[in-house]
């Protein structure tokens, strides 16, 4: 009889302990779900953005045809972006040179050169960093956006530019892109990015691919002599 009572007590304790641990597991699971939900609701993920020192914009495609921008204290009207006609059209029947594509930027002459192998695709004036230096080094295009918004700076150097066209990011948030807010190409005018005339930016955007090499040079001579001081390599 004593043995049976002892076995009964053990079974009751085992049952009690099992229920206890089951309840504890449920409470822990519910607590984790609540913490995860609250964290996602109140804590927003930090997105990278253009011109990172004082940026307010992210690295996503943004088209806003109804906004007015600002640059150096002046209002600027962005171009209208129509995705149906924004992308350059390929020309059928044209021959393609052999070799890898490579974009070179010569900071000393404020020029951009695009080559495929030893064949030059284009050459044009650009505007590199004035307020913040453009990064010198060897990179690759990691993102292409038909248009995005860029904002930053402070005081007289503040800017807020919707519909920045034909953006190709090559290092962090530094990119090649069209500039509609100035016409001073051939001279430094940017916050670190490489500004191009919109027509040139469109042409380059249609030619280059994600992964195309980009070299920012102190000086450059054809077809591939890029002189760099303390270059960054991605």
Please, could you describe this protein's structure?
There is one protein chain. The protein has 234 residues and is an alpha+beta fold. It is 24% helix and 31% strand. The protein has two domains: 36 residues; 151 residues, L,D-transpeptidase catalytic domain-like (Beta Barrel). It contains three helices and 14 strands. Strands 1, 2, 7, 8, 9 and 10 form a six-stranded mixed β-sheet that branches. A hairpin with a 2-residue loop joins strand 8 and strand 9. The protein starts with a helix and ends with a strand. About 6% of the residues have low confidence.
Query: Could you state the CATH homologous superfamily of the largest domain?
Result: L,D-transpeptidase catalytic domain-like
Name the beta content range: 25-35%
Order of helices and strands: HEEHEEEEEEEEHEEEE
Unreliable parts? 32-36, 38-47
Our count of domains comes out at 2
- Overall pLDDT metric: 82
Structural category is: alpha+beta
Calculate Rg over CA atoms.
28 Å
Distance between the termini: 80 Å
* Number of continuous helical runs: 3
CATH architectural label of the largest domain: Beta Barrel
CA-based shape = globular
Largest sheet: 6 strands, mixed
What is the level 1 CATH name of the largest domain? Answer: Mainly Beta
Q: In the CATH scheme, what's the topology name of the largest domain?
A: L,D-transpeptidase catalytic domain-like
> What is the helix content?
10-25%
DSSP summary, beta strand count: 14
């Amino acid at each position: 009889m004593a043995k049976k009572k002892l076995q009964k007590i053990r079974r009751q304790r085992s049952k009690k302990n099992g229920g206890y641990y089951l309840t504890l597991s449920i409470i822990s699971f519910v607590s984790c779900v609540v913490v995860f939900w609250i964290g996602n609701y109140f804590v927003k993920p930090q997105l990278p953005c253009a011109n990172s020192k004082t940026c307010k914009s992210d690295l996503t495609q943004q088209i806003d045809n109804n906004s007015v921008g600002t640059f150096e204290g002046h209002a600027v009207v962005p171009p209208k972006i129509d995705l149906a006609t924004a992308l350059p059209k390929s020309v059928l029947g044209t021959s393609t040179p052999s070799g890898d594509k490579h974009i070179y930027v010569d900071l000393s002459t404020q020029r951009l050169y695009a080559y495929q192998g030893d064949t030059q695709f284009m050459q044009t004036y650009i505007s590199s960093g004035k307020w913040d230096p453009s990064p010198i080094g060897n990179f690759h295009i990691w993102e292409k956006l038909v248009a995005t918004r860029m904002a930053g700076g402070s005081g007289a150097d503040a800017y807020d530019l919707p519909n920045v066209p034909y953006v190709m990011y090559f290092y962090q948030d530094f990119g090649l892109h069209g500039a509609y807010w100035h016409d001073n190409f051939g001279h430094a005018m940017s916050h670190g990015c490489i500004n191009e005339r919109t027509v040139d930016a469109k042409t380059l955007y249609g030619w280059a691919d994600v992964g195309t090499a980009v070299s920012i040079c102190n000086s450059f001579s054809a077809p591939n002599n890029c002189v760099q001081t303390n270059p960054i390599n991605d």
